[in-house]
Amino acid sequence: MRYNSIFDIIGPIMVGPSSSHTAGAARIGKTARDIFGRQPTKAEITLYGSFAQTYRGHGTDLALVGGILDLHADDENIVNSFQLARERGVEIVFKIIPEESDYHPNTAKVRLSDHTGSLEVVGISLGGGKITITEIEGFRISLSGDSPTLLVFHHDRYGAVARVAQVLACNEINIGHMEVARKSKGDQALMVIETDQDLTDEIIKDVKQIDHVYSVALLTT
Amino acid sequence: MKYRTVAELVALARQHGKTIGEVVLEQEVQAGGRTREEVFSNMEKSLLVMEQAVEKGMNEVVLSRSGLTGGDARRLREYAQRGRSLCQGVVLDAVNYALATSEVNASMGLIVATPTAGSSGVLPGSILAAGRHLGSGREQMVYALFNAGGIGFVIANNATISGAAGGCQAEIGAAAAMAASAVAELAGGSAEQCAHAAAIALKNLLGLVCDPVAGLVEVPCVKRNSMGAAVSIVAADMALAGITSVIPCDEVIEAMYKIGTMLPSCLRETSLAGLATTPTGQELNQRINKKDQE
To answer: Could you tell me which residue ranges the ACT domain spans (chain A) (predicted)?
Structure first.
């Protein structure tokens, strides 16, 4: 069964015109923003494939910027997001790559930055408003954003995964799906943990204090 | 979910003496781990968004970003008000509301994807028009949405609801089947009649290709939504009269899927054939999509 809920069929509630090119794009932008954890001062967005060919008429560009400004896919302000970005002092740069590439047809790469750091996220829109984040900071992952997701950036050392799992277990949080990606042995690594329960600030704080963990982000649904 | 086919949905409804809408709601509660109240109120929220979109599209001229669509819902409403239209009543209202919703969708307004944004006009058009004419209560309308969701759920899982995968028959076709079943239930039809209504509506749209001009959800999508709404109301009426679909609903759904896989990709949302490549379609594409690459 590819669809599990009746609300995949009657829904999502969204601004038009396209669930893949508008709602999905907004979700990619919002997810990037949530992982970054704050409003960036600059957003560089690269569009590939069908996104690049038809973004204008579908408002894919407005939706991505809206998401980056923390707007949900059902926020009618998405249509005004360029103006909103100017008002909030967020510089927006678009790069359009309409030629065929190895990327999925509906792919957006979003690079967010401010004076303290930057983050690069690659997302694809699967249709019906569903998305998958395929890359975070060069880590190849698969993240749907359908469940609460904990992202733990850490140094690739033994015990790091176990300690994070331990903190979740102590708080009666069940892991529904988990993957670990690393750039190379002993290098930087990323845990992507989808949970069945919501995570509190207290739990996030505990995870942050674990050895070898250097950054934590939480995506709520 | 305890149902995988429309036949199973009908059997469940019969077995428990319930409507399809009630069965779908209960199954969602059991599968999703949420309370009945939460699930119901979620759907009620969708109904509200549908009503607001219709209201907006009927009263304002909402133009799309490309300028290709907008204003036709109001044009049709004013025409209907003169009282001399040919299909006055539920059908024309359904067409009008569907047009309104699709125009709001094209203008980046708020809609409910049912089952997709591109086909989001059909279901609200049909159930809001039928509900108003029948004097249906709010609760009944929400159940009608669950009914539609159940039919769409089966189509989505056993076939496809993506124009890129199955052509427009998978989007407007699915939406019309969902709406026909929902309207049949609103009008007091049996679960079997709902299934026949869905089958009759979908059969009429089999083979419909997805050939959007300039890749946008506008031409011909907006008008196809209103025509899909008309088909759904007529199909519901036929089923309510006791007319049955010779080919059972699940087999029609399977046929739709197989036809979709046989469609060449140029007719599946790639804008490489059909209306998209007519001289006018190509000219519009040049005007809309190339101007920003200069």
So the answer is: 149-221
